[in-house]
Write a structure and sequence with these properties.
- The strands form 3 sheets. This protein has a 7-stranded antiparallel β-sheet with strand order 2-1-4-5-6-7-8. A 6-stranded mixed β-sheet has the order 9-16-17-3-18-19.
- It is globular and about 75 Å long.
- It is built from 10 helices and 19 strands.
- The chain folds into 2 domains: about 325 residues, Rossmann fold, CATH 3.40.50; about 110 residues, no CATH class.
- About 0% of the residues have low confidence.
Length: about 425
């Protein structure tokens, strides 16, 4: 679970941004908040981020994605995008994340410039204490927790020597199969899932599940005239190179599924690759016992969007043991407002103090600005000033947002929360 995220000097964010999923003292409803002995306070399962066009919503999502990629991949060059509208000397960018994984709370902090990582630290946090697991400062010896054995400390110092200046130490320890920090690394790789507005047919390397489950979800969303089916495809018809097939065979584990083309997936079963295409089955008008299958490319953007989100929908609504944090930019893209609202209502019904799933999303749908749907501390606003600086605030920290007797939606539409274009003023 994501507990806090902070960033400074990134795209349109010049000053420090402090985003938190920790709940405030809002009273209702409390039964959906996650509670655990590992952290102090209660954690929100869902948060919505609003803002006018080009205010910085996507930039915020990109900040989380950048940090995730920095941890997961070794890069020769750092694709850092600092705040551009300054004439003063360049300053470093800074990222911080606090997260909960496998009953532990971690803090990960990193400072970097365009060429190198200047500072990196991983800590494990208790209710009243914080212990540094490692602290990496450029041109300085690695600082390590005293609980590590001399052999472990020596191995870590050797790994540091082989860590490129543009590579995170967290990444290299995992790459070297040294598992002291594996739990923290796997939160970034397995439990943090980021979906952008035009992510094509999003399928992570996850255990295979049938379309039967997804069709059941569609029924829950009251979409009963569409049924997703899978049809086998001959690999020769796909035009794949032998090297492509070999790479897929190495990458996929038994039972895993991956998307390789729009509407084409590959699954490894009994150590063999099986290729299939997805189609949408429709009942015929003149005879409901007869159906017609259409390729997904023939369907509407809304049908395609549901297909893109199917792993998200499955793990949000069906997988009670999942520890995923889903971050979705423009959740409402191509979807009917009532459908999005119903999806959130279904997710709310799944949330209890023991559930560790989260949904963080940006949107423009004002119908979701409803205190009967989400707690007031679940809403965030991003604004941008004349000089291109974005600012992010919780609605409950704004003057008008503090009023429990005032409609958040009305205040938003009236521009009282600072989110309105000039032509409305």
């Amino acid at each position: 679970m994501l507990l806090e995220f902070k960033v400074k000097n990134w795209l349109s964010f010049n000053n420090e941004v402090n985003f938190t999923m920790m709940a405030t003292r809002e009273r209702d409803p409390n039964e959906r908040l996650a509670v655990d002995n590992a952290f102090t306070g209660r954690v929100l399962p869902i948060t919505a981020i609003y803002g006018y066009n080009a205010s910085g919503k996507t930039n915020f999502i990109e900040a989380i994605l950048f940090l995730q990629n920095l941890v997961l991949h070794k890069r020769r060059l750092i694709n850092l995008q600092p705040f551009a509208f300054l004439n003063t000397n360049y300053k470093e960018s800074w990222f911080y994340v606090k997260f909960f994984s496998n009953s532990k709370v971690y803090e990960y902090e990193i400072k970097l410039d365009l060429e190198k990582i200047l500072y990196e630290k991983l800590s494990i946090v208790g209710k009243t204490t914080s212990s540094i697991l490692f602290e990496r400062i450029i041109n300085s010896p690695l600082k390590l927790h005293s609980k590590f054995t001399p052999e472990q400390q020596n191995r870590l110092q050797i790994i540091l020597q082989g860590t490129a200046i543009s590579q995170t130490f967290l990444n290299n320890t995992f790459s070297q199969q040294f598992n002291l920090f594996r739990d923290a690394f796997e939160w970034f790789s397995l439990k943090l899932v980021i979906v952008k507005p035009y992510t094509q047919y999003f399928v992570p390397n996850s255990p295979m599940y049938s379309y039967h489950e997804f069709n059941n979800i569609l029924e829950k969303l009251d979409i009963k005239n569409n049924e997703y089916v899978s049809n086998p495809v001959r690999v020769e018809s796909l035009g794949l190179l032998p090297q492509d097939i070999s790479n897929l065979n190495v990458r996929l584990k038994e039972g895993q599924t991956q998307s390789i083309f729009p509407s084409i997936t590959v699954t490894k079963i009994n150590n063999q690759l099986q290729f299939s295409s997805v189609a949408v089955r429709h009942k015929n008008l003149d005879n409901h016992d007869v159906t017609t299958d259409l390729d997904l490319s023939s369907e509407s953007d809304g049908v395609k969007r549901l297909y893109e989100l199917r792993p998200v929908l499955k793990d949000l609504l069906l997988n009670n043991n999942a520890e995923y944090t889903f971050v979705i930019d423009e959740l409402d893209r191509s979807l009917h407002p009532l459908l999005v609202r119903h999806l959130i209502e279904l997710f709310n019904q799944c949330c209890t103090k023991d559930i560790r799933r989260q949904l963080i999303f940006t949107c423009h749908d004002i119908s979701l600005l409803d205190q009967d749907l989400l707690r007031r501390d679940s809403y965030w606003i991003i604004t941008k000033n004349y000089y291109g600086e974005s600012r992010m605030q919780r609605i409950t920290n704004l003057k008008q947002g503090k009023r429990t007797d005032k409609s958040i939606r009305n205040a938003y539409m009236a521009g009282e929360l600072g989110v309105s274009p000039e032509f409305l003023n």
